[in-house]
Write a structure and sequence with these properties.
Helices cover about 40% and strands about 20% of the residues. By secondary structure, the protein is an alpha/beta fold. The strands form three sheets. Strands 2-1-3-4-5 form a five-stranded parallel β-sheet, with helices on both faces. It is globular and about 50 Å long. The chain starts with a strand and ends with a strand.
């Protein structure tokens, strides 16, 4: 079944243009002109991805992102005319998986959508070989090919960036990484100005590990960054 994408933007020409490109790539797309209508649709049926404008009537993209992240790890791509550094940081802090500024190329947006789906495991789990490598650390098991994280017998739902962070840290468990290094390796930004995006991500990951009763720890190295403990 084709992936379902909810696209919310108060500009009709943008909605129509982006939808046409995504449909050509085989995606199902439902469009919305305001935040409240896309949230109503989300509560009735969960999509595979949400593409959200920031400035919309009723409920802005930040508020939607915050609300969805309380219960779901589905990918969220923020599209906005607001391209200030702090706007991008806030979007990442709230759990968005990517951020693209207007004006943008629809082809670039399609590429980003494909990349996100590929990273969260676009192929069905049946296509993943039984010999898929597992990464073990304490009571935590990661299966990268399935984007799966299990603490003991409890599966944990991480967002794409949360999973990327944990995977990166477990693969490099003997090292300490600065916030800047983590941002560069996880989001691909060479400079984001503030460390708050990674700090907020770490808080979310810690909370999910704690809720699952995991012994894995993300240790703060004061004045520098983070490392993994509990392996």
């Amino acid at each position: 079944m084709n992936k379902l994408i909810y696209l919310a933007d108060d500009e009709k020409n943008i909605r129509d243009l982006v939808k046409s490109y995504l449909v050509m790539e085989g995606y199902q797309v439902e469009t919305f002109s305001d935040g409240l209508s896309v949230m109503d649709a989300y509560r009735r049926k969960k999509p595979d991805m949400m593409i959200l404008d920031i400035m919309m009537p009723g409920m802005d993209g930040y508020a939607i992102c915050r609300e969805v992240r309380r219960e779901s790890p589905i990918p969220i791509l923020i599209v906005s005319a607001k391209d200030q550094e702090m706007d991008r940081i806030l979007g990442l802090e709230l759990g968005s998986d990517d951020y693209i500024a207007k004006p943008f190329s629809p082809r670039e947006l399609v590429v980003r959508v494909k990349t996100i789906f590929r990273r969260v495991g676009e192929l069905p789990s049946a296509a993943v070989p039984e010999s898929e490598e597992k990464i073990l650390c304490g009571d935590m098991t990661l299966i990268p090919g399935q984007r799966k994280a299990v603490s003991g017998t409890t599966e944990i739902d991480f967002t794409m960036k949360e999973y990327d962070f944990l995977l990166y840290m477990l693969k490099n468990r003997s090292k300490v990484y600065s916030r800047e290094q983590l941002i560069r390796n996880i989001w691909g930004y060479t400079h984001i100005g503030e460390p708050r995006a990674i700090d907020d991500l770490v808080k979310r990951v810690r909370k999910k590990l704690s809720n699952a009763g995991s012994t894995l720890e993300i240790v703060t190295v004061w004045g520098y960054g983070y490392k993994i403990d509990g392996c």
